[in-house]
Amino acid sequence: MAAMTTGSTSRADANRRRILDVALAELLRDPDVSMDQIARAAGVVRRTVYGHFPNRETLIGTLVDDAVQALADAHAVGRAGVQDPVEALARCVLAVWPIADRYRLLVALAQRTVTMQGIRERLTPVRSSSVELLQRGLDQGGFRSALPAPALAYVVEQILFGLMEAVNDGLVPTDEAARAAATTVLTSAGVPASRAATLVGRIAE
Amino acid sequence: MAAMTTGSTSRADANRRRILDVALAELLRDPDVSMDQIARAAGVVRRTVYGHFPNRETLIGTLVDDAVQALADAHAVGRAGVQDPVEALARCVLAVWPIADRYRLLVALAQRTVTMQGIRERLTPVRSSSVELLQRGLDQGGFRSALPAPALAYVVEQILFGLMEAVNDGLVPTDEAARAAATTVLTSAGVPASRAATLVGRIAE
DNA sequence: AGTGATTTGCACAATGGCGTGCAACTGCAC
DNA sequence: GTGCAGTTGCACGCCATTGTGCAAATCACT
């Protein structure tokens, strides 16, 4: 157990990765899962988890960091080189969807409090670029809403979360989810339903 | 402390009510607040809380029951005697908004798990009447969406939650929130932004 | 088979929350 | 002021969870 922190061996790496994966899934179900439950679910003993992560906070922190990173990347890729805000938003949603779906635990954790409020802070860069996108669209008439851009950004965020739940509950087929999400988000931002549908259909090859 | 369960005295009633109010607020901030924190916030000792509610579960259960009741009532009132699905949905949102905002803790709790999954069940009556409303609107063309009615209901729900957060964070003025919520929900359901705005403006006196 | 990294299986102290019991206290009403 | 509902303050016992220590077992690789 000496060089457990080194993590260069295949076994250790595999375990570390599995722990992270399982922890993600378990925390998704219940933000309060015990370290023991996580360990067992990963086919490992509690003590081993502590061999890879000094404490619960670090474990979750790693998860959150990974998630935010992936999310920010996808978001950036979606907007890259697209000037029309409407199309940019559509592309963003399509790009972000798979990652957001995977790291859905962010919601559950963000919805909680105090110590976890840091998550909201970490997400602000993503959110603020969303706001900028929406603002531009509202200014030049591509979007239309009763809400100011920042509030609209909240709504967009929540819509995605709502659709994740819907997918979870089998109300929307997985393979259509991303397109449906993009279309719904555009619609919520005041893009006529028919235009939203054709635009998204054209973008999603 | 003998007849503490009777609760006919003014003092006991006042305390019970204050405990419920404070518990709502505290649970809103953190679904995991301790009974002690709730008690202190209510200006009372922990032991006294147990005088009114046998255990934490009962306390929360009371809160949830009250919330669901109020929500269902408001929802029913909103739809009462309105045949046009679009207008009915708008009225529903306007009617439900204040109650939903007050009992926002439902979100946090519902988002959590296992023991609390009962909440989603208790909410199904409300949700299913929403679904029926949306379905009717989709059928007769008032609504338009890439989603089936049940999924759209999830989205509507989440939009409301998102707006509550936005209000919380000062992004939307409280007095405009209800109208903005109604307009946004209609827009998300594919009602043209201009029509949604005028309709809601006409309904909200 | 040997070596070093990794995992396991205990045992441990510490924390913190829950629910309860009981005696003393407070306030209001009569 | 006597009485009684309600409250307080402290006492428990109980349980789950966290993070650590250490020796033995296990694994991968040579």
From TrEMBL, chains A, B:
It comes from the Bacteria. Residues 34-53 bind DNA. Keywords: DNA-binding. InterPro entries: Homeodomain-like_sf (IPR009057), HTH-type_TetR-like_transc_reg (IPR050109), HTH_TetR (IPR001647), Tet_transcr_reg_TetR-rel_C_sf (IPR036271). Residues 13-71 form the HTH tetR-type domain. PROSITE patterns: HTH_TETR_2. This is TetR/AcrR family transcriptional regulator. The lineage of its organism: Bacteria, Bacillati, Actinomycetota, Actinomycetes, Kitasatosporales.
